[in-house]
Structure formats: C-alpha cells, structure tokens
C-alpha cells in the first residue's frame, strides 16, 4: 500500500499556533472531565466513601480486566445545562473477562444517583450503542430513581429504558444488573428486567415502594431489609440470582457471570499485528487549523491514525475536496471519507455516493472525518444540480448498512453535517475534537443573514432600519450561536459520544471498531432511489 | 579394572562420580527411589535400577537392595558417594562379599572411625592431639561443653551447654536424638572451644602403604553444625601449622590402616592449638575446593586406588590460587532454616566453566543434582548444588562466587542463596575471620538481599509492568495498556512479598510511558489479603500524572517492558529486571537480588458464613469418638466428640445447652481447621 507522506513542520509558526490553540481547548476539556469525575462534589464523595462504598468509576475499574482500556462515552453530558456535568451516570465500553461490554454506572454522589433528563438521555444513548454494536450490558446500579422536580421530562419517555432492557434480552444480548444500593420504584425494574442480578448484602434496596409509602398506601409497618434487602431477594423473592457479601464480591460475581456467557463475537477479528502509524500522533495537536477558515489536509490525520500510515486513495483526481480511500486501523479494514477543502461540490457528492456503495459491497466500515462548511451555494451550483448531487450522497449515507464512525475534526456545518454522517444519520459512534464546531451555519453568517432579512423587512415596511439596535442584536445572536456551536456544548447536549484528545483518535477509533465487530458487519442490500 | 560402576547414591554426588567414570571410560549404573525416577542422576547413567519406595530407609539405605541392583545391572564395583551408607562398614562388607569392588576404605577402617569415642581412644595412643572429653556428665567440671553423639555426623544430636544446670537435660535429649538417628544413643561431652575453626586435611592412601596429605580445607562457616561455605587453603593455617596438621592427619590414617580418600577433621582454637575431632572415611562434600587448588580429580584417584594402583605421587602437587565452595540448600535461613520443597522452576547460574570435574582454568564450577523443572522431594538432604569459585586469590574467588550466586536464577523453592552472598561479601569474611561463631555474630546475613519496602519498590513495579505487558500482547486490539479517556484511578495489584503485602499502583499514558506509580505496604486484611486494594479515589490521583509518584521518591522512567523483562531508569541509572512468572508467583531478578512475589487475589473469596451454633474444628485432624446423635439434647459443656491431632485428643464440647441439629462428621472423618463438625441450636 502507498504510504502517506507528511508536510507537517513542528517548528513552523502555524503549527505552533495551532498547537497552542488546541492545548487551550484541551485544558477546557480537562476541566469539564474533572467536573464529571468529581461527581457530586467532595462532601458527598466523602460521605459515600465513609460508608465503605466505592465510587462509580472505582466499581468500573474493578470490574474491567486488568490493564484493559476503557472508552468512556458521553463523559461531559449535561455540560452547559443546569445539571451536573456527567449527568450522574458513568458509562463506556471495556473488556470484562475478554468480552467487550457496555458498562453503565449511576453516580450516587450526585443527588443520590437520581435520574434527571440528561441522565435519561445518556443512559438511552449508551443503551443504543450497546444494541447497535451487540454488546452485553452491565448496569452498576445505585440510584434513588427519578429526579422528581423534572419528572415530566423523565417519567413518560423513561419507560423505554425498561423496554430496551428486555428487548436486549430477546435479542440475546445479555443484561447484568449489579445493585449496590437503592434501586427503588421504577429503578427496581432495572434488576427486574435484567437477565442476571447480583445484590450486595446489607446495601441493596430493591422495592417498588419504601416503608413510608407502604405505610401510607396500606398501613403496613415494615423496614427496608424486609421490603427489598439483598438477603430477602436472594432467599425469598428470587429477584437476586447472587447474594454478594460486599461490593468487591459483587464485582467478582459479575465477572463470573460474564465468563459463563459463552460469548462469541460476530465480526471479523483484526489483523493479528497492526503496524503503528509512521508519524507521531502528538503532531495531531498542530495539524488542525486553529482558524476554521483555513482548511487543512486530512491526509495529515490519516498518516497519524492508519496502520503503517498506509492509505489507498480512491479517485484521487476527481472531486478532490473530498478524500476517499482504504486503509486499516488497529488491524481492521476501513474506508475513509474526509473533507479536504471544506466545501462539498457536485463531484465530491457523486464520488462519496459511489464510494459508500463500494464499501457496502465489501462489508467495510466507514470513517467520516468531518471538516465541512456545507454544500456549495450559488447560481451555477444550484443550476448544476447541487441539491440533487447532495441528495445522492445523503441517500448513500442514510441507507448504508456498514458501521459508520464519525469524527468532527474541525467544522460540520449545514447539510454537510448530514452528508458527512452527522448525528441524525446514526453513525455507530461520533466524536469531536475539542476545537470542532457544528451548526446550521457559522455564527457570523447566521447573524449577518438575520440582519439582511431584518433590513429587507424594514425596507418592505418602509421603516428606517435602526443600525445601532441591529448591531447589538447581531452581536448578541453571534455570541449565542458561537457558544452553542462548540464541541463541549454539543457534547453536553449528547449530540456526540464524547470530545476526544486528537492524540487519542487512533485509540478511540480502534476501540470503537473493536466494539463494532462484536456484532456482524454487513453492507446494505439496497439503497433508496438515487436521483440522477 | 573396573568396567561398570554402580553409585549407591543420588543427586549431585552420583552425577559427580558419573562424570569421572565417563572421562575414564567406565560404564555407569544409577539407583533411584520413586521420587527420583526423573532425577538427573537417573537419566544420566547408562543403566538405572529402581529402588521401590521413597524414604531413604526403604531405598538408598538398603544395602541388600543396592548390592542386588549392582548384580542385576552387571556392575563390578560400587561407589557409595557420601551420606547414606558411605561410612557403613557393614555395607562395605556386603559389597565385598558379593564379589564386587568397593570404592572406599577397608571395612575395618570405617568401623574404627565410625565411633568417635573409639577413634579418639585409638588416635590418642598414636599421639594425635585431643580435647578432653568424658562420657559421664558427672565428670564435667568446666563449661561450656559440647555434647556429641559418638556415631553419625551432620551435627545431629550436638548441643552446646554453658550452664551446668542444663547439662543433664541436654545429654538426655542428645541421647534420644542420636538413638533415633543412628541407632546408637552413646554421647560424650567435650570441652567446647569458643571461636574455634574447623580445619580438615584431605588424606589419600593406596594399598601399597603410601599415605599423603592433599592439603587442608577450612569449613568453619556452619549453620547448626552443618557446613555451608568451605575453602582451600585455610586463611588461618601457617606453613608450620600445616606441617603439623599433615603429620597428625597422615598419622591418624596410618593408625587405622587406611586406604583410599579420607578426611581428618581438627578443631583449631584461637591460640593456634588444634585437636582431633573425627575422621570421615569417604569423599567429602567439599572435595571440589581441594580439586580446584590442586588440579587433581579425587574420584579418579579413588577409582585407581580401588583397582589396586599406587598413588601417582608421594608429595601433594603445589597449591594454585584459592577455591571457595558454597552449598546451595533448599531451606529458609530467615525462618529457622525450614526446608523448602516443590518444583524448581528455573535453575540457571551464569558464567559456569566446568561441572563435576576440576576446571582447567580459573572460574566457576557447578556440581548440581538439579536442573530447571526438578522437583525437590521432601525425603532427602535439601542440598541443591555446590558452586565453587577458583581464582588466583581468596578475595577474587569470594567476589566471583558472590556475584555468580547473586545473579543466579533460582526460582520455585526458597534457598540460602542470599545468606551465602551476604557471608561472602561480609568484611570479616574477607579478612579471614571465619570461625564457627561467624553466623551468630552476623545475624544480618539471615536477611534476604532485598527485603525492605524501599528496596522492593522497583522489583514490585517491574513485576506489575511485566504482567501488564503480557496482557497487552494478548489483546486483539493494540491500544495503549490501561488507556482511559477520563483517567480516574491507576491500575492496582497486590503482592505478598518479603516485606509483607504491598500494593502497586501504576498508570501508563497514551505513549506507554509510566505516568504515575507507587508501591505501598498495606495492612493484612481478612484471609491474609490486603483490604485496601481498591484504587485510590479520584481525589487522590490527579489525572495529570506524577502526583502519586511522590511517595516513591525519584521519578522513574519505563524504558521497556515485555512479559519477562522490564527496564527501568531511576535517578538516571538504567537497570533491567528479569521477571519470570509461574502461576500467581513472579520471580523478579534485579541487580540487587531476587524477589519472590505472590500476586494477591483481586477478588478475595468471602469467608463462608457459619450458621449460629456451628462448632468448627480448631485444628486439622481425625475425629476420634462421637458421643452424641442428631436431635439429642445436650447440656452446656457436654462432651460431643473428640478430635485427634498430633497425638493430642481435643475435646469438642457444647458451648451452651441446646439440641444437636446437625452432626456433620463421624468417627474417623478427616477434618481441616474450620470444618463444621456439628451445629448446636441453643434452647
């Protein structure tokens, strides 16, 4: 295979500028991750530990195979909202007894692990990833149930969590619930709907209604242990399959369950020895342009994430603003679509549509590296059929059957976001670099557009246009759009599966590919009608 | 001429004799007990004959079986080696009566020297200097005295008595021990010489009446009267003293009509006076040091003399340089010299130039009865091997020997290796201050080379990183080990090691570099397992690396890690740790020595919860009598059943009034500590 060359000069001014800008974004990411890690804050963490209990990440660390990687997903969910960063849930993909599993742990230090609207969204997203990639699901439960003040946003949609659990079982995707503390009311159905349940002695509390509510409802006076203690469920109700002596024992039992799942992956194994890239992944910090108006060559990224920096480019001389081609990543074959010069024209769209179909004929997963300002606008492009050609590409993306992985490595604007497999097009995983932005259009363009429309409206009404007020409005709009376009904000809204350090791109994609191959990898049998 | 020789012995000495046989064109016959069926001496011989059973008494000590084996294999001569029947006059006679050649002294000479008391009487008459001694404890007037068994050797039955009040008890105990070990309870009391030195002279006599002294050896470094380091020549022997020793030794040999190889042992007191101790009528374990400095093969001489040939010299060859031998034992000096058994997973000693024969150049000689994979049985002497350094000077020999032992890979059983290294590197040893009180004066030599948590940090870290490298290579997707996009806690692993349980924490960054690490002692929790193995909390470990490395002192760089080798750089110095993992055990060999680490279970099994009123066996044993039946009412303190263990009868009684609701054993049941015997439900 041809080896990519690199024009990166780590001593150049532009490289250093890019790198400094990226480090600033990474510092912001780090503080967001620190906030997530802090959970409910020092006081609640201390109280939790003083009870001899482990924190959610500690439970996950103990559950994972030693030295196994763990890809935490949606770690900054709820960033920019009124709820704590992380959405009182920790989840991700890691290996347990050699099996790639989706592990989801509630964080009891955040308001008792109560489910708020972001927590619900996050757990549903994690459940969906588990479903699409055929991953066994391990729930590490300690949650007080629904966050009552926001129940209107949770109660009705929240039922889907339980539906998904039992459908996972029907889909022969094992579900395991380890209950460390409260799992009451609706939460009781998490163990209730799981294939395997493990309850920790003298900690787990699983009941539909606690003693006060029972007393209100029927007058019966009772206590937590009799209503829903681990011992009771293990010996009387049968809800507990295993009675764990303590948290560590519960995790031991969970691993024992996984060991006996007789789990077999459906996808291909990767090539046994994958050559590392020939270029330093550290350079990725200086590769991406800090100024989004300056496009950069995505081959510089590919040279740092593909095995041996080897890349077979497809149609290299046609539609050159979109790079397409084949390579391998961590031993898995992969097809790549990467924006080279921001704009998508008719040629690029047609090239993409063809390439995606080819990948589907060879059951090859696709990687989309987004850095696009959208499809080209203007008279000659409209007349040349840019909508029609963009539709070709969007059709191919939407109906493609092979797994898609998307990384926003700069910009993702307009319909370009759709054509390059944005969130709505259900890539199996979607990650963003810290400086990435996404919106219907750029903040300045959007504010400017609004101003032009307002000016036209004023002119139509014969009113005088208030220039000063318009400037204030324009700047306000620009700031708002700018704020809502950044990676952390979008990740907070769960529009991606995480903001990643560019240097981790290969690792993240390798783990994602491993997860993807837990299930079958198969191309689509047919597409929708391509408008010619 | 001997055509085919049977060696009535095992292990290292059998191999030693075989080596000379091969060099001389003599065919070899081994005997082996059942546990030795796969032993190296069994495999190495041209022919091997089984001695059914495992205990020495049923195998290597059975003269009849040994002679039968020799006849069955067509051997025409028998070499007894040392130990077992080597100094048994009856065995020599049995061999000779069967028409076989006996490679050893005449039975009469063996018998004469077999009783120390007899030998002392005989040789005192021949003018050999003796310590005052008596068989009657009532005649002892000055202390300290040494109580010794008249028969046998190896320090069995020997006791030093300093307090007159303790003499009677010591004599009784020595009698019992000697009677049990040698079938002869005769003991005697001898003046005890403080800071004495054990000097012995190798003598050789042929059947033509020539007797020659082949140099002296010093064997003063002893543990419990068992030699562990021997050397030739002795740093304490002057030329005049040497002449006197030689004269006394050859005189002793001639007095009993000695033929073949023998050793006359003397005690040298600090004033330079020496006294006869005993004569060993066989080849000594430590003969290689003599072979080293003289360049002669003593086994070859034995065989030639047994064939009736005269000694090839009348004067000993000149002494060349210095030789020191260290005996490597499977025993734990730090725990009362407890013998250690099991599988020797690895046995590698670097730089060995010769085995079982005198070397023709300075360097290391290894005489070993074991190899990697050998099983060390419980039935025999725990000596694994002898390592002999021969060098132009004593200091060089000691340095070479210490270095070779320190870098040897001996995995699977606990050995005295570290003790040997510490002794050889001790300043007083270098000065030649090697009297029999050496180990008592230097108790620090009992400590393993690497034993403090400070010294254990890097080996423990290396063990953990080697295991991590092993797991990384087994993963299908090659991503950085332990990678996290949201780092919160390091990897944690617990080991039980020479300083008790420790917890190793480490985190590697995306490039595989060591981002943070610590090695901390932890308290022993339930079932001997640290209870603090959960990773430190997020607050204690900052994700930006390095913060918990402070506990470890200098920053450490991971240069390279594979499953069996880890190279670390600490304080600007790079060293390699070889890691050998067998099951849960990691053997880490570094520049400072070897550390054995047992990985603690990550998920300790919970203790079984006992039903209320359960009575458990307090110790392992067999159930004797059972006095109750299920359903029976019992009063508090009622005897329920008895347990027999270690000749004791342990009574199990009801803790309070109640009903026997469960009876889980019957008379004769074997039980372990903690086995539930019965359940008494209180009333």
Q: What would you note in describing this structure?
A:
Chain A is 42% helix and 17% strand. Chain A has 20 helices and 15 strands. Chain A is α/β, with parallel strands linked by helices. In chain A, strands 8, 9, 10, 11, 12, 13, 14 and 15 form an 8-stranded mixed β-sheet that branches. A 7-stranded mixed β-sheet of chain A has the order 1-2-3-4-5-6-7, sandwiched between helices. Chain A has helices spanning 13-37, 42-50, 56-63, 117-132, 151-170, 189-192, 211-218, 224-228, 230-237, 247-259, 284-287, 299-305, 346-361, 379-383, 386-399, 414-419, 443-461, 467-485, 487-492, 505-516, and strands at residues 70-72, 89-96, 99-106, 137-143, 175-183, 196-200, 242-244, 312-314, 322-329, 332-339, 342-344, 366-375, 404-413, 429-432, 437-439. Chain A is globular and about 80 Å long. Chain A has 3 domains: 24-259, 2-enoyl-CoA Hydratase, Chain A, domain 1 (Alpha-Beta Complex), CATH 3.90.226; 281-440 and 486-516, 2-enoyl-CoA Hydratase, Chain A, domain 1, CATH 3.90.226; 443-484, no CATH class. By secondary structure, chain B is α+β, with helices and mostly antiparallel strands. Chain B has 5 domains: 4-103, Rossmann fold (3-Layer(aba) Sandwich), CATH 3.40.50; 132-191, 2-Layer Sandwich (Dna Ligase, domain 1); 197-446, D-amino Acid Aminotransferase, Chain A, domain 1, CATH 3.30.470.20; 453-599, Glycoprotein, Type 4 Pilin (2-Layer Sandwich); 614-681, RNA polymerase II/Efflux pump adaptor protein, barrel-sandwich hybrid domain (OB fold (Dihydrolipoamide Acetyltransferase, E2P), Beta Barrel), CATH 2.40.50. The radius of gyration of chain B is 30 Å and the shape is globular. The termini of chain B are far apart. Mean pLDDT of chain B is 89; it is low at 526-552. Chains A and B meet through helix 1, helix 2, helix 3, strand 1 and helix 10 of A and helix 15 and strand 25 of B.
């Amino acid at each position: 295979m041809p080896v990519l060359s690199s024009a990166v000069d780590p001593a150049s001014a532009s490289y250093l500028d890019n790198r400094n800008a990226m480090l600033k974004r990474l510092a912001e990411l780090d503080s967001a991750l620190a906030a997530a890690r802090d959970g409910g804050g020092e006081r609640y963490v201390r109280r939790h530990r003083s009870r001899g209990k482990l924190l959610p990440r500690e439970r996950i660390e103990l559950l994972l195979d030693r030295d196994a990687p763990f890809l935490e997903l949606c770690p900054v969910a709820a960033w920019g909202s009124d709820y704590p960063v992380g959405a009182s849930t920790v989840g991700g993909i890691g290996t347990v007894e050699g099996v790639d599993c989706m592990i989801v742990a509630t964080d009891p230090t955040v308001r008792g692990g109560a489910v708020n609207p972001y927590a619900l969204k996050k757990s549903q997203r994690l459940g969906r990833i588990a479903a699409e990639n055929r991953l066994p699901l391990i729930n590490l439960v300690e949650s007080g149930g629904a966050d009552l003040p926001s129940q209107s946003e949770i109660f009705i949609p929240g039922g889907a969590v339980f539906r998904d659990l039992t459908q996972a079982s029907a889909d022969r995707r094992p579900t395991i619930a380890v209950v460390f503390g409260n799992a009451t009311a609706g939460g009781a159905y998490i163990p209730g709907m799981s294939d395997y349940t493990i309850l920790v002695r003298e900690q787990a509390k699983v009941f539909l209604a606690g003693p006060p509510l029972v007393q209100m409802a029927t007058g019966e006076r009772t206590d937590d242990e009799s209503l829903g203690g681990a011992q009771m469920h293990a010996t009387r109700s049968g809800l507990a399959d295993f009675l764990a002596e303590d948290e560590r024992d519960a995790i031991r039992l969970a691993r024992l369950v996984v060991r006996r799942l007789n789990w077999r992956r459906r996808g291909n194994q990767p090539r046994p020895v994958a050559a590392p890239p020939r270029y330093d992944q550290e350079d990725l910090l200086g590769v991406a342009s800090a100024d989004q108006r300056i496009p950069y060559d995505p081959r510089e990224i590919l040279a740092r994430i593909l095995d041996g920096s080897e890349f077979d480019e497809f149609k290299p001389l046609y539609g050159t603003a979109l790079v397409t081609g084949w390579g391998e990543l961590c031993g898995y074959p992969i097809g790549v679509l990467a924006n080279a010069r921001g704009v998508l024209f008719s040629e690029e769209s047609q090239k993409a549509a063809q390439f995606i179909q080819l990948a589907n004929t060879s059951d090859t997963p696709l990687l989309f590296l987004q850095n696009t300002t959208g499809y080209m606008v203007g008279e000659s492009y409209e007349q040349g059929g840019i909508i029609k050609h963009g539709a070709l590409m969007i059709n191919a993306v939407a109906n493609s059957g092979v797994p898609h992985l998307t990384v926003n490595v700069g910009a993702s604007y307009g319909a370009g976001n759709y054509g390059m497999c944005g969130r709505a097009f259900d890539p199996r995983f979607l990650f963003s670099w810290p400086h990435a932005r996404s919106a219907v259009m750029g903040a300045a363009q959007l504010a400017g557009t609004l101003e032009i429309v307002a000016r036209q409206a004023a002119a139509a009404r014969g009113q005088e246009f208030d220039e000063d007020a318009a400037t204030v409005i324009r700047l306000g709009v620009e700031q708002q759009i700018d704020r809502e376009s950044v990676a952390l904000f979008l990740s907070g809204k769960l529009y991606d599966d995480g903001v990643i350090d560019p240097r981790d791109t290969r690792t993240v994609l390798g783990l994602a590919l491993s997860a993807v191959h837990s299930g079958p990898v198969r191309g689509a049998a047919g597409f929708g009608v391509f408008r010619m | 001429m001997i055509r085919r020789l049977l060696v009535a012995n095992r292990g290292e000495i059998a191999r030693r004799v075989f080596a000379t046989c091969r060099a001389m064109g003599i065919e070899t016959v081994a005997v082996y007990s059942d546990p030795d069926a796969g032993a190296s001496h069994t495999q190495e011989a041209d022919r091997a004959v089984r001695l059914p059973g495992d205990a020495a008494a049923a195998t290597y000590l059975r003269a009849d079986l040994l002679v039968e084996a020799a006849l069955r294999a067509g051997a025409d001569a028998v070499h007894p080696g040392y130990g077992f029947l080597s100094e048994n006059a009856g065995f020599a006679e049995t061999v000779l009566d069967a028409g076989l050649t006996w490679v050893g002294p005449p039975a009469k000479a063996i018998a004469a020297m077999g009783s120390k008391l007899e030998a002392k009487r005989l040789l005192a008459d021949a003018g050999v200097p003796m310590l005052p001694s008596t068989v009657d404890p009532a005649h002892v007037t000055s202390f300290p005295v040494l109580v010794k068994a008249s028969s046998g050797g190896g320090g069995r039955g020997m006791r030093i008595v300093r307090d007159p009040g303790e003499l009677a008890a010591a004599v009784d105990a020595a009698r019992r021990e000697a009677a049990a070990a040698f079938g002869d309870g005769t003991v005697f009391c001898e003046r005890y010489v403080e800071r004495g030195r054990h000097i012995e002279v190798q003598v050789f006599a042929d059947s033509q009446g020539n007797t020659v002294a082949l140099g002296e050896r010093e064997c003063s470094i002893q543990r419990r009267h068992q030699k562990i380091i021997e050397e030739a020549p002795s740093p304490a022997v002057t030329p005049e003293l040497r002449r006197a020793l030689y004269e006394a030794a050859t005189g002793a040999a001639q007095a009993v009509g000695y033929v073949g190889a023998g050793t006359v042992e003397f005690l040298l007191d600090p004033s330079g006076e020496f006294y006869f101790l005993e004569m060993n009528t066989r080849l000594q374990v430590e003969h290689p040091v003599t072979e080293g400095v003289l360049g002669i093969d003593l086994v070859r001489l034995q065989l030639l003399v047994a064939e009736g040939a005269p000694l090839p010299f009348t004067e000993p060859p000149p002494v060349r340089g210095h030789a020191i031998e260290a005996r490597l034992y499977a025993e734990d000096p730090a725990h009362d010299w407890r013998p250690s058994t099991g599988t020797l997973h690895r046995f590698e000693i670097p730089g060995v130039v010769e085995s079982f024969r005198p070397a023709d150049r300075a360097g290391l000689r290894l005489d070993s009865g074991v190899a990697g994979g050998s099983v060390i049985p419980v039935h025999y002497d725990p000596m694994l091997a002898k390592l002999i350094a021969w060098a132009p000077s004593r200091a060089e020999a000691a340095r070479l020997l210490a270095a070779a032992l320190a870098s040897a890979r001996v995995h699977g059983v606990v050995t005295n290796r570290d003790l040997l290294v510490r002794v050889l590197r001790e300043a007083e040893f270098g000065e030649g201050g090697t009297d029999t009180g050496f180990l008592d004066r230097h108790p620090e030599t009992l400590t393993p080379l690497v034993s403090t948590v400070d010294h254990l940090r890097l080996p423990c870290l290396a063990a953990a990183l080697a295991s991590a490298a092993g797991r990384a290579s087994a993963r299908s997707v090659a991503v950085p080990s332990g990678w996290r996009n949201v780092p919160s806690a390091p990897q944690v692993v617990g080991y039980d090691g020479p300083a008790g349980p420790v917890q190793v924490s480490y985190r590697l960054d995306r490039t595989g570099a060591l981002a943070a690490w610590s090695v901390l002692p932890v308290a022993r929790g339930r079932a001997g397992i640290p209870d603090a193995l959960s990773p430190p909390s997020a607050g204690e470990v900052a994700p930006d690396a390095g913060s918990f490395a402070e506990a470890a002192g200098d920053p450490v760089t991971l240069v390279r890690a594979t499953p069996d080798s880890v190279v670390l750089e600490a304080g600007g110095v790079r060293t390699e740790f070889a890691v050998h993992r067998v099951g849960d055990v990691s053997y880490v060999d570094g520049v400072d020595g070897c550390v054995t680490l047992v990985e603690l279970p990550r998920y300790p099994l919970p203790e079984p919860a006992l039903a209320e009123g359960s009575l458990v066996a307090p110790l392992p044993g067999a159930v004797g009598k059972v006095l109750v039946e299920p359903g029976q009412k019992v009063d508090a303190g009622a005897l329920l059943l008895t347990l027999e263990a270690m000749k004791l009868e342990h009574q199990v009684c009801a803790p309070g009034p109640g009903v026997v609701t469960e009876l889980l054993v019957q008379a004769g049941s074997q039980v372990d500590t903690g086995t539930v015997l019965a359940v008494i439900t209180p009333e």
